[in-house]
Amino acid sequence: MNTQILSCDWGTSNFRLRWIDVSTASVISEVSDSIGIASVYNEWLKSGLPENGRSGYYRKILFSRIKQLANDPMKGIPVILSGMSSSSIGAMELPCKKVPVALDSAHLYVQHIAPDECCPHELLLVSGVQSGNDIMRGEETMLLGSANAATTGRLVILPGTHSKHVTVNGNSLVSFKTYMTGEFFDLLSRTSILSRSVAANSKEHWDIFEKGVRDGASGNLLNAAFHVRTAQLFAKFTNEENYHYLSGILIGNELSAISADTPPVLLICNSAFREKYSRALTISGITDEVEYLDAAAALVRGHCQIAKHYIDR
Questions:
Q1: How confident is residue 63, by pLDDT bands cut at 50, 70 and 90?
Q2: 87-102 tens-digit pLDDT
Q3: Is residue 69 part of a domain?
Q4: Smallest Cα–Cα separation from 239: which of 263, 283, 213, 203?
Q5: Residues of the domain holding 261
């Protein structure tokens, strides 16, 4: 099989493409930007192109990013694509597998797309998983790449735009719930009346964040969110502090759904989310037994497993 792949995680808000050595699951080169599926879908709608041209429209954008990875066009290297590309606003809507789903490559729904003039790379489009009223697209690939990391007996939390709380039994994904934590934060901080009360910043205000966690966990979310505005009006917090207060409120409210007898937690996320969720889980009294896996590494391992199963078979 190919010893290299292109690993693409195309989410609602962000695009990440990595050139991968499959034998070591190591990253050779990568590009990322904020051209998420939601914005591409809106641009496609504005284009007036027919439905049968939709897949090609998305794959042209994908190929433009592939060309940014290296001067060499990398002919013959296949692309493994997961995330929102298989959704109703993506390149091609695919059905989802229903839980329980075994966490191995053979049990995920994968659509092969042959190379053409839009994108001269073989493409494997990975679909998601559904559970009752919930759905995931992209996280299943991270779980696949984490299946050997003792996920059984743990509550697996994958923070993000739509955070997932996942239960794994044996080697099967058996249930999960979705929380719109990241999307609510984006909406409230950028387009609501609270946008004038917060200011994005990289400085950590952990005492303010932790107050937000406690307020979000113990009170009504709609009421607690308004306190971000009054904290500015009454000069309790600066706009920079309020940014972290709002984050704490939303994460605290998300975690308040976890029962007191929860098993140890496994976080699959980046380092920034790791710190926030670890602190929030501890101060909420939920658990201080938290383990961590890097989300990017888990995704790459998942894509490598899919490549080994489907390519050149």
A1: very high
A2: 999 999 999 999 999 9
A3: yes
A4: 203
A5: 181-294
